[in-house]
Amino acid sequence: MIYLDSAATTLQKPPAVLRAASYAMGHMASPGRGGHRPAMLAAETVFACRETAAELFHVDDPEQVVLTSSATHGLNIAIKSLAGPGDTVLISGYEHNAVTRPLYAMGASVRIASGPLFDPQALLSSFEAQLTGDVKCVVCTHVSNVFGYILPLEEVAALCRFRGIPLIVDASQSAGCLPVHLRELGAAFIAMPGHKGLYGPQGTGLLLCGGEAAPLMEGGTGSRSADQAMPDFLPDRLEAGTHNVPGAAGLLAGLRYVKARGTGAILEQERALTLRAARGLSRLAGVTVYAAANAERQAGVLSFNIGGMDCETAAAALGERDIAVRAGLHCAPLAHRSAGTFETGTVRASFSAFNTPAEVDRLIQEAARLSVFRP
Fold it and tell me: Helix H segments across 189-262?
């Protein structure tokens, strides 16, 4: 099968990731729960994961790197640390449900900075106009999970710093292929999954903490056991319960792969594949491609539609031809509303460091057959 759904999960992992997770399952216990060798080996591995992430993402102290089960987990911690019922929160018009659902559930007053697809200046102008003194915090995705649109995050971050308003970054589609630097952005939090561009196992994630954080849940931490309040220091304050040590071991191997390969090299490969797909698909009769005119605004995610064919039907047909893509609203209805594709949804192809030009060409060939024989 040709796997083109890495915006959901990178199915193809570096072999070291599988080896590390398997080894941890048989040799490591729980960090902070004993002085014996299996517990100490787990503690060393978990700390190495924090340390490697801190280096890759420019975090001053490895203890500011919190292990989570997903980007959604981290975003919930971040949002609920900074905002509450009735608070005004400004978000981009390209946010995932991992951002919007927690905000609506808590009863926040959600304000949306909007702008046409692939128009960063319009989006930035909307942020600037709406970033008033009553805004409690800002949430901005770095890259749209639907369209691969690289938002003007650095400029939004500078605006937040100037006005003294905390920023939460959703780096779900950028961690591992774009510079994501906590120190330079000055963000309060950056959340990211481990299982996408970092090539770790599912059920892993990281929350980079640049400010004070409130626990999402309480429980054992292996530290200060006599106290009934959660520890007041990171990472223990946010890591109640047993760590996913096999996940952390696999994520460490994924982080090391990204560090060795280089985010710039990974982005260059993914962008080249995306632009190749965009050019080829746009030549097909009846096919609409949503791609940036300026390649610098395009990451390794591409949406398209085949005219006269429902996006779910098109994706299923590609699946029958052994090409794995995703279709629908991609858990991001707000992004589709911003781009004008809410009623139709899109077919989404997303690439990783393990995809090849030949696989892209096969996608184009099969899409061509569907565009000719569509009902």
Answer: 245-261
Cα atoms in the 13 Å half-sphere on the side-chain side of 296: 3
Identify the sign of the CA torsion 225, 237, 207, 108. positive
Q: Which residues contact 97 (CB under 8 A, 6 or more apart)?
A: 331, 332, 333
Q: Could you report the per-residue pLDDT of 156-213, keeping only the tens digit for each?
A: 999 999 999 999 999 999 999 999 999 999 999 999 999 999 999 999 999 999 989 9
Whole-number pLDDT of residue 6 = 98
CA 220/CA 246 separation, integer angstroms: 19
Q: Is 366 exposed, middle or buried (0-12, 13-18, 19+ CB in 10 A)?
A: middle
- What's the pTM? 0.97
Q: Is the dihedral of CA 124, 127, 133, 138 positive or negative?
A: negative
Which pLDDT value is given to residue 254?
98
Distance of CA 42 to the CA centre of its chain: 26
Quick one: tokens of 278?
A: 């965009």
* DSSP 8-state code for residue 295: G
* Residue located via tokens 């200046």: 121
Secondary element (H or E) of residue 132: none
Is the C-alpha dihedral spanning 141, 145, 146, 148 positive or negative? positive
Q: State the pLDDT confidence band at 373, using cuts at 50, 70 and 90.
A: low
pLDDT in tens, 89-120: 999 999 999 999 999 999 999 999 999 999 99
**Token pair 């090391």 is at which residue?**
256
Tens of pLDDT, residue by residue over 267-298, are 999 999 999 999 999 999 999 999 999 999 99
Going by C-beta distance under 8 Å and a sequence separation of 6 or more, which residues neighbour residue 355? 2, 3, 4, 6, 269, 270, 273
**Residue closest to 99 by CA, chosen among 298, 343, 345, 334:** 334
pLDDT band at 263 (very low <50, low <70, confident <90, very high): very high
State the greatest distance between any 2 C-alpha atoms of the chain, in Å, as a whole number.
70
In whole angstroms, give the CA distance from residue 269 to residue 246. Answer: 29
Q: Write out 21-66 in H/E/C secondary structure.
A: HHHHHHHCCCCCCCCCHHHHHHHHHHHHHHHHHHHHCCCCCHHHEE
3-state DSSP of 266-280:
HHHHHHHHHHHHHHH
